């Protein structure tokens, strides 16, 4: 979806420019929202009428049409004409807000990342009015975080383009798969590896390098090709192997370095050799056609790709103790979805029908509470109106339970945004921190967890993969407390969150916590992000019994009543 991404990128840059210029937040958010909708859109924007898309207003639709017609957006050109190239990039640096950026631009002439780093290192940043050493140190941390993440993008952005390429190649061979960190479902990826096996290598490679997403061809050989796609200038590498070593190559090019080293050591202990071509006894290849064949030859069960990180999976496989980790088909409902009553783009009926089409047994409409004004949080009267609409729709739509939920803000003193008399009327209550990220967050979360009506803690770390560090919180303390109080921890499947991540999931599981995988969807296209959350859960060794929304709603409801 090249045009979708191109226009979304421009809308985000317009939002950056408006933010830098001190424009009102609602105009900024309108562009951010339009960018998000375009990225989640399954259709090619050049083939449909943008005015008919939910979440795209008339003004945005006109700008989309302008770009499709002329290749430019006049508003963007006007905004950036007086802003130095490289300056707006700095808005992506954690701990550096638009007001601070404007200050350092005006006072120090900072125009790019290099200038900012120099100002931190020579002390001039700390000397600015209202800055000081502490703020300067936090900005330095933000620079380090930004630089570390710049070369990688969230898996949720990489996966669609790789899926599209693989789909085209499946017309030639059924032996094709992503490899490397993408197949292991790591939260961010760098270059993308695809592996294929077929006798017609030339046709596979030619189809790959001529795919519509390809921007530049870096290499095309007899067995390998590398390209740059027009989506985030991502590098994608394709390797074509012989059918007889397909399984061995897939094992070799999927596992982490530590996993592969241990596999080689295991093979050596059995007087065998393992590489991308197979398992060998002397010069004889004794296994390699399938992954199962490779693992079985070493006395092991097949190991799911997400576990191949050398975290004990090899030992568990050798002793037959690998867990049956969760699968996407185990999910019975999505408990975290925003409707157009708050900041979502779709009405409740559209959401419910989309959830039903996915085979869900229940769906949780969880809009923002009243304090989240930017997200159009619901006051109590609007909440009652929404709940009445849900009751009406439930009589109209059969075969799926519509839950009256809310994502309720945890306030500065740890209390919740609605009184208990309102919370007890809801089917599902999510507690969440949306402001005051560095103000007593651990205490506030624990106090919210103590509320008998709270069912789940949303996005517990608060980090964003695009560059936000997250809350100043003792996360282990909070996770252990939630486990003791029987409050679920969210695995937020939104591609920029993936929060909890795999390492925190493993830690929380050790405390006996249970989890909910929620998409935090703001349009129906985002419902498919559930696969990303399941990927995180699999990396965290979670089974069906660890995930609350693999249960029937009746069982969840009974558990909630017992807790209360």
Task: Report on this structure.
The chain is of the alpha/beta class and 564 residues long. The model has no long low-confidence stretch (mean pLDDT 92). The radius of gyration is 25 Å and the shape is globular. It has 3 domains: 2-150, DNA polymerase, domain 1; 154-318, Beta Polymerase, domain 2 (2-Layer Sandwich), CATH 3.30.460; 328-563, Metal-dependent hydrolases (TIM Barrel, Alpha-Beta Barrel), CATH 3.20.20.140. It contains 22 helices and 17 strands. Helices cover 42% and strands 14% of the residues. A 7-stranded parallel sheet has the order 11-12-13-14-15-16-17. A 5-stranded mixed sheet has the order 2-4-7-6-5, with helices on both faces. It has a 3-stranded antiparallel sheet with strand order 8-9-10. The protein has helices at residues 2-20, 25-40, 58-70, 74-80, 98-108, 113-121, 132-150, 155-169, 180-183, 201-209, 246-254, 257-269, 291-297, 313-318, 348-357, 380-396, 420-423, 441-450, 475-484, 502-510, 530-539, 553-563, and strands at residues 153-154, 176-178, 188-189, 192-197, 214-220, 224-229, 235-241, 273-275, 278-281, 284-287, 333-337, 362-368, 401-409, 428-432, 456-457, 488-492, 515-518.
């Amino acid at each position: 979806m090249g045009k979708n991404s191109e226009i979304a990128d421009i809308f985000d840059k317009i939002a950056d420019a408006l933010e830098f210029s001190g424009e009102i937040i609602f105009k900024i958010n309108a562009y951010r929202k339009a960018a998000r909708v375009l990225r989640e859109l399954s259709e090619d924007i050049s083939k449909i009428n943008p005015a008919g898309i939910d979440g795209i207003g008339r003004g945005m639709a006109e700008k989309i049409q302008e770009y499709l017609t002329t290749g430019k957006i006049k508003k963007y050109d006007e905004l950036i004409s007086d802003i130095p190239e490289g300056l707006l990039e700095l808005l992506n640096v954690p701990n550096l807000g638009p007001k601070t950026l404007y200050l350092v631009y005006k006072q120090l002439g900072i125009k790019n990342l290099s200038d900012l780093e120099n100002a931190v290192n020579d002390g001039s940043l700390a000397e600015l009015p209202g800055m000081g050493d502490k703020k300067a140190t936090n900005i330095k941390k933000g620079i380090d975080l930004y630089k570390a993440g710049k070369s990688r993008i969230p898996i949720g952005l990489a996966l669609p383009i790789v899926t599209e390429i693989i789909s085209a190649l499946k017309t030639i061979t059924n032996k094709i798969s992503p490899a490397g960190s993408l197949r292991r479902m790591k939260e961010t990826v760098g270059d993308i590896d695809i592996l294929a096996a077929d006798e017609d290598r030339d046709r596979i490679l030619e189809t790959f390098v001529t795919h519509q997403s390809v921007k530049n061809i870096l290499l095309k050989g007899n067995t390998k090709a590398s390209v740059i796609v027009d989506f985030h200038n991502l590098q994608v590498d394709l390797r074509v192997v012989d059918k007889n070593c397909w399984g061995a190559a897939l094992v070799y090019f999927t596992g982490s370095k530590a996993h592969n080293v241990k596999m080689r050591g295991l093979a050596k202990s059995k007087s065998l050799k393992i590489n991308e071509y197979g398992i060998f006894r002397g010069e004889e290849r004794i296994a390699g056609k399938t992954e199962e064949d490779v693992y079985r030859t070493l006395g092991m069960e097949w190991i799911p790709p997400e576990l191949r990180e050398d975290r004990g999976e090899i030992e568990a496989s050798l002793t037959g103790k690998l867990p049956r980790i969760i699968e996407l088909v185990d999910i019975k409902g999505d408990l975290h979805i925003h409707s157009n009553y708050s900041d979502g783009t779709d009405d409740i009926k559209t959401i419910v029908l989309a959830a039903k089409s996915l085979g869900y047994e229940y769906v949780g409409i969880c809009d923002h509470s009243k304090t989240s004004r930017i997200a159009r949080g619901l006051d109590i009267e609007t909440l009652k109106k929404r709940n009445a609409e849900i009751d009406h729709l439930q009589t109209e739509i059969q075969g799926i339970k519509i839950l009256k939920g809310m994502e309720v803000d945890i306030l500065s003193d740890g209390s919740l945004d609605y009184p208990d008399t309102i919370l007890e009327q809801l089917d599902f209550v999510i507690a969440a921190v949306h402001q005051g990220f560095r103000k007593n967050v651990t205490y506030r979360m624990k106090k919210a967890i103590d509320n008998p009506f709270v069912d789940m803690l949303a996005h517990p770390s608060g980090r964003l993969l695009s560059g936000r560090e997250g809350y100043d919180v003792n996360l282990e303390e909070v996770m252990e407390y939630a486990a003791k109080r029987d409050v679920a921890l969210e695995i937020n499947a939104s591609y920029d969150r993936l929060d909890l991540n795999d390492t925190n999931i493993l830690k929380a599981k050790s405390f006996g916590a249970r989890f909910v995988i929620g998409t935090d969807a703001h349009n129906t296209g985002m419902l498919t992000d559930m696969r990303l959350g399941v990927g995180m859960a699999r990396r965290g060794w979670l089974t069906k019994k660890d995930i609350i929304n693999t249960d029937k709603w009746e069982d969840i409801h009974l558990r909630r009543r017992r807790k209360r």
